Amino acid sequence: MARVVSLKKPARRSRAPVHADIKDPLLAEKGRGRIDWAGRTMPVLSQIRERFDRQKPLKGVRLAACLHVTAETANLVLALKAGGAEVALCASNPLSTQDDVAASLVADHGVSVFAIKGEDNDTYYRHIQEALNTRPQLTMDDGADVVGVLHNDRMELLEHVIGGTEETTTGVVRLRAMAKQGVLRYPIIAVNDAKTKHLFDNRYGTGQSTIDGIIRATNRLLAGSVFVVAGYGWCGRGLAMRARGMGADVVVTEVDPTTALEAVMDGFRVMPMSEACKVGDFFCTVTGNIDVIRQEHFEKMKDGAIVSNSGHFNVEIDLKTLHRLARSRMILRDFVEEFTLKSGKKIIVLGEGRLINLASAEGHPSSVMDMSFANQALSSEYILKNHGKLERKVYAVPQLLDQEIARLKLKALGVKIDKLTPQQEKYLASWEEGT
Fold first, then answer.
1. Hey, what domains does the chain have and what are their CATH numbers?
2. Which end of the chain is flanked by fewer CB atoms within 10 Å, N or C?
3. pLDDT tens digits, residue range 62-95?
4. In 72-95, which positions are buried (b, 16+ CB within 10 angstroms) versus exposed (e)?
5. How far apart are CA 122 and CA 126, in angstroms?
6. How far apart are CA 65 and CA 114, in angstroms?
7. DSSP symbol at 335
8. Model pLDDT for residues 138-181, shown as the tens digit of each residue
């Protein structure tokens, strides 16, 4: 059951107690500063929040958000509240919550938050249930766990749901599978597919924050090491780019021939994991698939190889098998666990195989999350305006919204671009003129 949380001395003004389950309400002051700091480099979301505050496009709408509970997410939640939404927030990963941010959202803004960093799996799903107890009309997912729980365990709530949004590649894959099988019960907008999301958040955000997480956890030098990136999607591209920038010799593993060819053309060594596992010093999976690193790879790795994951779920590294292969395990430092195999060789796993950029670091920089969360906010507004026209399937973010977010970001950066002349527009719309 959720706890009723209130501060004896509220930081700003008195509020009724809020249903929430967080680590410690007294962390609110620290969280307040962190939320403010992130908001300073989120100008697009700030402009949307100002408009939402005037127009109240989400007035009275109940929204359940299953997202990483970070300072950047807090700024999204405050924009949704400014628009009139009643938000219940739970974590989308057991290790991704910033407890001080959760405390500030509860104490300072009256948001119902159900998230504690390091919560076990049972608590994680209980928190999702708590958010769903608000009978949401909109859902906002980072991995599609809310959608999954709704469709499997809380089907009685589906009649209330107008639509939802999804933030991640992993979640979109799951949702498209549901739509293809005809079991998806309400429309979802795939925020991840917006250009202003995956070209920046996935590439630059994941690249920087994953390197940040690995270094914070290990304090090891990347320069001169062999760094194996499993998967060369947008997240893998960004990670490979940043690892090379730190001086690592980057190896890419892939299953898609076209993507593998692109990695070759980008100057990376490409090989199967069966070969890469023999040479890598660092490994990081960013594929969205299961068992990318498994028994035959562990057995061939160097002594002391460091293994991590930056895909959404902790399934990319076959940890169950590694547990079975190990004769002993030892925690060496926060988020660093050493597995000693029966041969005496040691394999190091970071962050329990969960998102290392959020487990040991702070996730993506706020300036890229600015665009991702702008997509979330505007897509929620779009669903409310158009839900009567939307079918039970996965939709792309409307191109006009995507371009508007890019325009606002450029404006905030002080960057100007050209406009087509009437003659150019006519030329592009015609077929009569040739060479």
1. 3-197+363-413 (3.40.50.1480), 203-359 (3.40.50.720)
2. C
3. 999 999 999 999 999 999 999 999 999 999 999 9
4. bbbbbbbbbbbbebbbbbbbbbbb
5. 6
6. 10
7. T
8. 999 999 999 999 999 999 999 999 999 999 988 999 999 999 99
Phi, psi for 284 (deg, rounded to 5): -145, 125
- The SS3 assignment for 108 reads helix
| Separation of alpha carbons 113 and 216, rounded Å | 27
Average pLDDT (290-312) is 96
Other beta carbons within 10 Å of 417: 7
**Beta-carbon count within 10 A of 306 CB:** 23
Distance (Å, whole) CA 397 – CA 187: 12
**Token couple for 388:** 């009567």
The 3 state secondary structure assigned to 291-329 is CCECHHHHCCCCCCEEEEECCCCCCCECHHHHHHHEEEE
The strand order across the sheet containing 305-309 reads 269-270, 249-253, 226-230, 282-285, 305-309, 346-350, 336-341, 326-333
